[in-house]
Specification:
alpha/beta; five-stranded antiparallel sheet; 16 strands
């Protein structure tokens, strides 16, 4: 069902010095017609006061469009959340007039109890074998207490997102409207820990399109979860990793040198980038080829995939500079995403400026001229006002996370 490909950014290594290499681990479906899994989608809409008007109208229309595009076997659970969570639809399978009437009953209330919304997802999207569970939380404001005060300690909510992921529930977040009115970094943290995606719908009219795009992505999932075990050898050490394709997601170990990959799509590659420090040869060793990483992938109902990858030591500087262009560009896209992900939380103008410079340099080297121009404009705004524009920051972050899917 899947093929495993392992490629280094630089296939050769100078004998005399250690070097950090990037390995691209690619999972490639055997055929784009790979069987996909049914979907249980849980959609939560913020109905606090700020959603009044065109935002609520757009949210209602987006829900109706989602219902129209469910496949046989897909289900939708829909709820609104404010001071409490109100379940409107429970595992509905198709569009009908009754569902439309229920959606039209959505009404504005008061505060934004994001904690209750996440608990609703945990209780509603009970994991089922062979079914993909995805929660999407749509909000235009900050998480609050029941009295409407901003929730100061957001860590328990981040922990809830991690719990969702551990239970096999993917969490996506949508920031709706002006990014100055919600906490971009918090929504990104939620989706990252929930192994999902952050979506920025800066105008209400784009919400329906963006939710449909997310629905299509979820409907292409063919494998619920894969465990990736990494075994460095011959003195190599692993420095970090991320998923670059189909869209960027920072990864964390679930055990030493072990990653859990969720929601593998059946119609496009999944690319994992791994930063590996390769040591220099000792004085007693001659140029040779060494294996530095062994990998094993295990998934339910699939035969294990195994592979290993080597690098050749050389005394030739020109040979050591030979580059795999595609993997090197992917390495630069990783740098771009690391920089853009840190921008919303950076409070130090000097650090923020350095992030934008690093991002711009990596974007120019990888041919991402539009991203480079956005970073340059952000840097100009920072120099002029001492702070970043919230809309531009959220828009840049969303754009960089999609870069891997453009190739």
């Amino acid at each position: 069902m899947l093929n495993l490909q392992l490629d280094w950014d630089r296939p050769n290594q100078l004998c005399s010095q250690s070097f950090k290499h990037t390995l691209r681990l690619r999972l490639l479906p055997n055929a784009p017609t790979t069987r996909t899994l049914p979907l249980h989608l849980g959609l939560l809409l913020d109905t606090s006061q700020s959603m009044q008007g065109e935002k609520l109208t757009a949210a209602k229309q987006a829900c109706k469009e989602i219902l129209k595009h469910l496949r046989p076997g897909d289900t939708l659970s829909l709820a609104s959340y404010s001071a409490q969570v109100t379940t409107l639809l429970q595992q509905v399978q198709n569009n009908n007039n009754q569902s439309d009437r229920i959606i039209e009953q959505l009404k504005i209330e008061s505060v934004t109890r994001t904690d209750l919304a996440l608990n609703w997802l945990l209780n509603t999207l009970q994991p089922q074998s062979g079914v993909i569970s995805v929660g999407i939380l749509v909000t235009d404001g900050h998480a609050t207490t029941n009295q409407g005060q901003l929730l100061e300690d957001l860590n328990p909510l981040i922990t809830l997102a991690e719990t969702l992921a551990q239970q096999g529930i993917i969490l996506c977040t949508v920031g709706l409207g002006n990014a100055a009115n919600f906490n971009t970094q918090f929504l990104v943290n939620l989706s990252d820990r929930g192994r999902g995606a952050f979506i920025y719908a800066d105008e209400p009219e784009v919400l329906s399109r963006q939710l449909q795009e997310r629905l299509i992505a979820c409907q292409s999932i063919a494998i619920e979860e894969i465990r990736l075990q990494l075994k460095p050898c011959n003195g190599a050490t692993i420095e970090g990793f991320c998923r670059l394709r189909p869209e960027y997601l920072p990864l964390e170990e679930t055990a030493p040198n072990q990653l859990t990959l969720s929601a593998i799509r059946g119609n496009e590659p999944t690319d994992i980038l791994i930063s590996v420090n390769v040591p220099a040869l000792t004085f007693s060793e001659s140029p040779c080829t060494k294996t530095f990483l062994e990998v094993e992938l295990v998934a339910p109902n699939l035969a294990p995939l195994q592979g290993e990858t080597s690098i050749q030591y050389t005394h030739s500087y020109s040979e050591a500079q030979q580059i795999n262009r595609q993997v090197n560009e992917d390495r630069l896209l990783w740098i771009i995403n690391q920089c853009s992900s840190e921008l919303p939380s950076s409070q130090d103008p000097q650090r923020t400026g350095q992030l934008l410079v690093d991002l711009q340099v990596a974007a120019l080297k990888s041919g991402q001229d539009q991203i480079a121009a956005s970073a340059a404009q952000q840097l100009a705004d920072l120099n002029a006002s001492g702070k970043l524009n919230a809309h531009s920051t959220a828009d840049l972050l969303q754009a960089t996370r999609k870069l891997g899917g453009q190739q």
